[in-house]
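Supplementary Methods, section 5.1.

A reviewer requested that the exact input to the structure prediction be made available. We therefore reproduce it here, unchanged from the version used in the analyses.
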Amino acid sequence: MKSTCRFCLKHVLLCASACLLGSVSVNAQLPAIKITTIQAQTLFGGDSAKLIMCYPTGSSDKPADDQGLATGLSATTYLLDFSAATYSWKLLTTKSKLWVGDPSISWDGTRFAYNNNGAIIVQDLSDSSVHVQVATGSYDQRWWVSPAGDEYIIYVTSNWANGDTLGFDDGRTYLQKLVKGTCQLVGTATKLLDIAMRNGRSANGKYMFTCQPGRAQAELVPTASTNAFVKFILEDNTQSCNGSYNTDINRPNGYSYLAGAHNQILQGDANPIQLPAGYTENTYCEWSTHPDYLVTNAHNQGGEYQPANRDICIYQASKNQWTKVSTKAGTSHLWVKRSASTGAIESKRLQPLQDRLLVRAIPGISKMRQFEVSLPGLIRATLIDVNGRRIAESTGTNSAHIRCPANISAGAYIVKVKGNNRISTQSVMIE
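The structure derived from this sequence is encoded token-by-token as follows.
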């Protein structure tokens, strides 16, 4: 039944006791990797990418009741590194429980967060001995990086149950800051909202989204880390599930979700994403840390709770194209490096493909604070912050050179380019 899909939790046989954390798994029941190194290089444009997956090895991962959905069932988490010479599943932990959004990989691709029966753990991807417990009695952990570049784990204090109308009245939403790039906590968690918003925060910090079985979007004070609620801008009791927020700072309403027969991925600000050819349904869809990619478990009718009948597929928005990663599937999350080889900018390909806009960091410049903007014709390029304030500007024919002020803070910014009787934008990360 689709009404039980929001957190279609899975039970899993633990891998053989001889497997050590950090070793390469040889479990024959794991998904067969179908993507080739050449396909991966094409898909990710030569950038580094990693996929983590919680995998059930039972014949069915449908829980017996809503309590099973709410508390979670045992799972094993693996890593697939697309930068490796050969592809295989690397065991990360046998302690995770399966939820949509579990596991969740950090935006820099060095750590992941998972849930162990209500305990939220952040663990280093390369060293399992490096980990920290973020909270207990908590669920729906998701990474969030503020426009200022600070790292947080967002989570809620109530477990989901299928009987909820909107699912947020009985819980709270918390925000736990981490030392950037580490598994170290900064102080204690702060209460972000007096309601449970489960599906992430927009990259500009202004909105949160939640669903199962209804859906809602709330407006927040963008810079607030406590008591941030402003108002609801969407409340809909229509059956919905599998919510996820896109990480593009230019998409404040860029959340996705499933509804009805799961035969397409609905979006808050764009047309639905159609499924890959050969599949009629999907589940566990989740936006990557990179705004151009989404990962899901694609299947046909009757395969929602059958891991052997689901396949991991990655969607690239800029090309409207799907790539099959594996046969068999578990809940997955994808990390793709958010910078091009020339410097620290997002390699987002959504707008450039349409407008031939290119924004690149100039190699060799300390902290990558100068950018070359290219677009045919006479152009005006403006660097603005997330609040719309102009930081720097430049004009030119076919290209413009933006020089950031020396005192600019690290974080997310937007390059807005006027030319060819149109306006184009692209996100950039300044280190």
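The first strand starts at residue 32 and ends at 33. These observations are discussed further in the main text.
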